[in-house]
Amino acid sequence: MRQGQGHSPSARARSARPVLIGLAALGLALFVLPLLGLVIRALTEASGLALLEPAVRSALLLSLLVSTAATALAFVLGFPLAWVLARLDFPGRRLVRAAVTLPMVLPPVVAGVALLSVFGRRGVLGPALSAMGIELAFTPAAAVLAATFVAAPFLIVTLEAALEAMDPRLEQAAATLGASEWRILWTVTLPTIRPAVLAGLALSWARALGEFGATITFAGNVSGRTQTLPLAVYETLQSDFEGALQLSVVLLVVSLSVLVGLRGHFLGAPAEAQR
């Protein structure tokens, strides 16, 4: 056997490391540089406080209310959906899962048009809703519904994965001891998947907070009524770039705080990272 020809497997593996590290550094720069540039420009160029404007404060308050209401609605409707998808085997389950997760990849504007085509005044359910005195389109309720539509799938996917990974023997043991299904749900299932519930709620809330396309299409952009903070950023950008910088930083800080608060619960981080 000839000596000195070729490279050992370990040497070939090490030769790939610099390339991977270099590409990883470029990828990191792609994400970090725009955010860093946003903060730097906001600190160095923005003058005055855009948050002192009544319209901006109203938009911030509405965003917080809409995202919180949308997250609550997402849990009320999303947990049962996640439970059904994780625990029941029925015809068309894959189709149901696809329909539930479709808003994650659907362009937000298309989501808004879809909501408008159903709940708008001339939508499929519009005449029936109008007959009952209910008007959804271009109201704060429309903003909540739009945010729920695009944010709930993130919660459902997280909860479904947690329910599928949960040890079924825990619930079986509780049932053996005579606990009802509701008692098992509240005292065994939910406490066991609590990290996933918190992560899903936080991610859903953050997604609802940043919603733009579906909201402006279905709820409109009426200052003091349906204008959320992302819409205020867009409107401010048309005439006041410095103000838009400040508002963008506010959204950035809130979103970053949510991600830091997750503490590795999302995407199945190991238990050590969750402590």
TrEMBL record:
Name listed for the protein in its UniProt record: Molybdenum transport system permease
Organism: Plesiocystis pacifica SIR-1
CDD domains documented for this protein: TM_PBP2
Residue ranges crossing the lipid bilayer per the database entry: 20-40, 60-86, 98-120, 140-163, 184-206, 243-262
UniProt KW keywords: Cell membrane, Membrane, Molybdenum, Sulfate transport, Transmembrane, Transmembrane helix, Transport
Matching PROSITE patterns: ABC_TM1 (PS50928)
Annotated localization: Cell membrane
Pfam families per the UniProt record, alphabetical: BPD_transp_1 (PF00528)
Protein family: Belongs to the binding-protein-dependent transport system permease family. CysTW subfamily.
Molecular function GO terms recorded: ABC-type sulfate transporter activity; molybdate ion transmembrane transporter activity
Domain named ABC transmembrane type-1: residues: 60-262
Gene Ontology CC annotations of this record: plasma membrane
Subunit and partners: The complex is composed of two ATP-binding proteins (CysA), two transmembrane proteins (CysT and CysW) and a solute-binding protein (CysP).
